[in-house]
Amino acid sequence: MRAALWLLVLFGVAVAGALFAGNNQGSVTLFWPPYRIDLSLNLVVLLLVGAFFVVHAAMRALSALFDLPRQALRWRTQQKERAMHAALLDAISHLLAGRFIRARKSAEAVLEQETSLTASGQKPANAAQLRAIAHLLAAESAQALQDRAAREDHFKRALEQASARDAQETRDGALLRAARWALEDRDPGAAMKLLLGLPQGAGRRTLALRTRLRASRQAGQPLEALETARLLAKHHAFSEVAAQSILRGLAIDLLNGSYDVAQLQRAWADLEPSERLMPEVAIHAAQRLTTLRGEARLAREWLLPAWESQSELGDNLRVKLVCALEEGLDSLDGAWLARIEAAQKAHPRDATLQYLAGMACMKRQLWGKAQQLLTQAALGLQDPGLHRNAWRALAALAEQREDASAAALAWKRAAGE
């Protein structure tokens, strides 16, 4: 459509020119004493148009001639910039390939090229960010080469260059990399200090939170690590299974850091409800409370959710749950005794529940029922510890009945003979 319109316009111009030139009888007379020159108006118009084009071409030629030095300078600058960017790409490639010496040399070449350009008055765009990245690459290579002095020097220079507002992201990246280097050097305190230098928004990024998690775990700060892991789980930084495993491990670490009952209760209160419902955490907390000579009633209170979901637990966890409850059988109340009896009756072939019910009956001095349950349990228990304890309890019951042969047999079974 556009070509057709241009064609129509050209036809119109041609027709107008033909009408003007064909019927134009005008003339132009030039007086140059003693001469007189008569020219047609059409010829004069053509001469003027021709002269315009000649003068225009001459001016463009002169402009191009005088512009040659500037073009040559720009060409040289472009060649230096291309060499600088090529060196930057080489530094990144060598670093990824594990050729750290070459990566360091390429990064230093970038800095030399940039310095040369700046000295010649041809400062490249984003020069501060470019220098900061080059220093970071050199520092990363120095870290891989265990040259800490060079690493610190390049890192300080990178921070100086990244202080400009247009290089804020580069500064954040430099602090994160430095925090990772501190963790590799087993210096979590320095890593935490570097992370505190991040802006609030950058400090909540997934990479920063992962680094904070590693630093707090190295520093032996389970509560800080647990809070960070919660944020990471909230941001879906881990899979659901991995998040549960990490939170479970950190919760257990937090409980292990308690050395009296008051500290343990505070640690338990610091846990979120979902973490308290984890059977592994609840069982470990109850065992820890028993070790610290805490109240068995409180331990059973913590174990209640795990007990109610015991059918979903694996064999190993069920054994740990039974062991945790066994520690407080001396002060077992009627409600818990009813729960144990109901569970044992609901699963009469479960050797683990038979063992727990038998031990509870033994504590209540129900000797006959205890012997019956423990005998059945001893024949079916797979856990070596519970199996040994069951035979020891049967030996004690036999000695109480003054049945020496049964007691001797039970002690032999307990010893594994």
UniProtKB/TrEMBL annotation:
Biological processes per GO annotation: heme metabolic process
Subcellular location: Cell membrane; Membrane
Chief site of localization: membrane
Residue ranges of domain HemY N-terminal in the record: 26-130
Keyword Cytoplasm among UniProt keywords: no
Membrane topology: Multi-pass membrane protein
Cellular component, GO, one term: plasma membrane
UniProt key word Membrane: yes
Entry keyword set: Cell membrane, Membrane, Transmembrane, Transmembrane helix
The organism's place on the tree of life at top rank: Bacteria
Record field: transmembrane: 40-62
NCBIfam families: TPR_hemY_coli
UniProt name for this protein: Heme biosynthesis protein HemY
Organism per entry: Ramlibacter monticola
